[in-house]
Write a sequence for this structure.
């Protein structure tokens, strides 16, 4: 006997070769929790343009559609009879948020700072340092800010055995998002090699051209570098690595939850606040801005410390695990369901 059809949660997020997959990855964590609470996610994102992203959705059984013009999003919400709308975008104009709220479905909006005129019923800033409530929120809205609301996917929350850590020739994982828009992989590979320290490194290269540049970097004694395409099981690679180098984006809080010994790179200006918060807390080391890395003695010394001092790596892992408890997505969906209940958008 067929059960009732679950209500739809429409998830609108930026995605594409030029914007990366960070918005999608944190929305996936939220979507997994929504599904557990009997809301079926339907993504509105340009997944077909990024094969890695399409596979992430397909492997979880999530449906998606290409984004229409902004003025047609409201019609899409009504057509799906959505009980909840989630928007994670830097690109949509502010008027779209007000337009979506007029459908009657509660709107949960990601913000990584000021709302900038965007209306929502629930605002989410999952970043460390996001606890400060910004001004000019929509009347009657709920604000969820800070690392307590960081969203973790099922694969991150799954229990795993503690890996055996190396001390003499550490294993390093370097990755910079599913598309590496800023072409960080070869720059960081050169920085790694320049430390002169023996290591084995897996560098995620988003394109064949980037992989070729990574492989072209000449290595020194005891240094092995392998360029690989985007990994569908990146979490497994993080867990098995002694050290991780990553952009200071959405994956930062995932690395903290996994207890990785991490060095962060700022590849875009909007990552600076998260970079400073994570490094100031002592949960990660900071290498600085990507554009400053070539020839940077400070970045090289920091990376050398990460590679050569096991006690530093152990301390980073301890601090990181203490920062993110992994329950953020439950807290966020609790707030969203409360708004749905209040609005009477779900029945029965």
């Amino acid at each position: 006997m067929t059960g009732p059809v679950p209500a739809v949660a429409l998830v609108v997020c930026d995605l594409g070769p030029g914007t990366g997959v960070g918005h999608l990855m944190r929305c996936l964590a939220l979507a997994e929790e929504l599904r557990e609470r009997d809301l079926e996610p339907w993504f509105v994102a340009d997944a077909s343009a990024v094969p890695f992203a399409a596979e992430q959705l397909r492997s979880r059984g999530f449906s998606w559609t290409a984004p229409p013009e902004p003025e047609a999003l409201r019609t899409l919400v009504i057509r799906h009879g959505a009980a909840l709308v989630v928007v994670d975008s830097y690109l949509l104009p502010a008027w779209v948020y007000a337009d979506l709220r007029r459908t009657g479905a509660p709107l949960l909006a990601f913000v990584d700072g000021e709302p900038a005129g965007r209306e929502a019923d629930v605002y989410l800033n999952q970043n460390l340092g996001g606890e400060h409530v910004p001004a000019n929120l929509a009347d009657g809205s709920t604000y969820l800010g800070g690392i307590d609301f960081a969203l973790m996917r099922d694969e991150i929350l799954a229990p795993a055995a503690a890996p055996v850590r190396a001390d003499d020739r550490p294993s390093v994982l370097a990755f910079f998002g599913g598309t590496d828009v800023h072409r960080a992989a070869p720059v960081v590979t050169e920085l790694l090699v320049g430390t002169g320290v023996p290591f084995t490194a897996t560098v995620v290269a988003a394109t064949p051209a980037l992989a070729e540049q990574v492989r072209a970097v000449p290595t020194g004694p005891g240094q092995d570098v392998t360029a690989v395409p985007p990994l569908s099981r990146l979490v497994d690679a993080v867990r098995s690595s002694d050290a991780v180098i990553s952009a200071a984006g959405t994956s930062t809080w995932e690395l903290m939850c996994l207890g990785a010994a991490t060095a962060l790179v700022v590849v875009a200006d909007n990552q600076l606040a998260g970079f400073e918060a994570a490094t100031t807390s002592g949960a990660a080391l900071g290498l600085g801005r990507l554009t400053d890395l070539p020839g940077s003695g400070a970045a090289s010394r920091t990376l050398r410390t990460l590679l050569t001092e096991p006690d530093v790596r152990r301390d980073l892992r301890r601090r990181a695990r203490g920062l993110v408890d992994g329950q953020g997505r439950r807290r966020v969906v609790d707030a969203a369901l409360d708004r749905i209940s209040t609005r009477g958008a779900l029945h029965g």
In short: The mean pLDDT is 92.
